[in-house]
Amino acid sequence: MALKDITLGQYFPGATPIHRLDPRVKIIGTIAYIVALFLAKWLVSYALLLVVLAIEIALSRIGLKSILRGMKPILIIVLITGLLNLLYTPGQGAPLVTFWVFTIYREGVWAACSMVLRIAMLITCTFLLTYTTSPIQLTDALERLMNPLKAVKVPVHELSMMMSIALRFIPTLIEETDKIMSAQKARGADFDSGNLVQKAKALVPLLVPLFISAFRRADELAIAMECRCYHGGEGRTRMRQLKLTAMDGAALTLSAALCVAAGVLARLGL
Q: What angle do CA 166, 25, 236 make, to 5 degrees?
C-alpha cells in the first residue's frame, strides 16, 4: 500500500449540492447516518442506506476511485473483523462448514457480510464529510455545535481548532513521510523485507526525522498564530457566517427520516 492511498483529511473543492450544504448540517447528517447504520439489521435496511450513500457520492461528484483508494489502509482491519464474525458467530441450524475447531453457520455468514458492509459504509460517509468540507468550515461548525458547552467552561474554540489542525495536517505528514522514506531508500534502507520485528526496527530511522519535522511544523504554526495576535475564540469574528438554507432544512429532515426508517425496518425485521 502506497502512502498516497491515505486520503483522510483531504479536501476536494467543488460547487456541488453536498459542498454547498452548511457544515453543521453535514456533521449532524453524518452522525445520523452512523446511527441509522447501527440501527439497521436486515437486508432492506442495508439496501436503503446503500442507496442513500450512492446518491450522496453521485451528488458530491467525488470519484468512486478516490473513495476506494482511501479504503485501502483499513482493508486488512475490515477483512479481519469479517473473518472473526464469520468464525465465531454461533448458529441455531445445521452448520454450513466445519473444519478444525471452527464451525461456520448461516448466521455467521450474515454477520460477517453485514459487519464488513457496515464498516465500509461508515468509513465512506466519514470520508464524504472531510472530502466536501474544508478544515475552516469544520472548525466553525464544531464550535457552533458545541457552543452550549461553554456554559460549563469547556474550551470549545480551542478543542475545535485542535481537531481541525490535526485533520488538516494528516495529508501533510503523509507527504513528509513519503519524502523521508524515498530519501532513506536512496541511502540503502529496506522497509519491505524481513519479519515483523525487522520491519519495525527499520522504521526507527523513519520515525525520528518524522517526529522532528512534526514538532518543527507545530512550532512554526504556533509562532505564526502568535504573530497574528491569536488569543483564542473570545471576540473573534468570521469571514463567512454560517446560515441555514431551505436545502439545509431538507437535508436535516431527510437525515431524521433515515434514522426513523432504519429503526422501523429493524423492528419489522426487514
A: 55
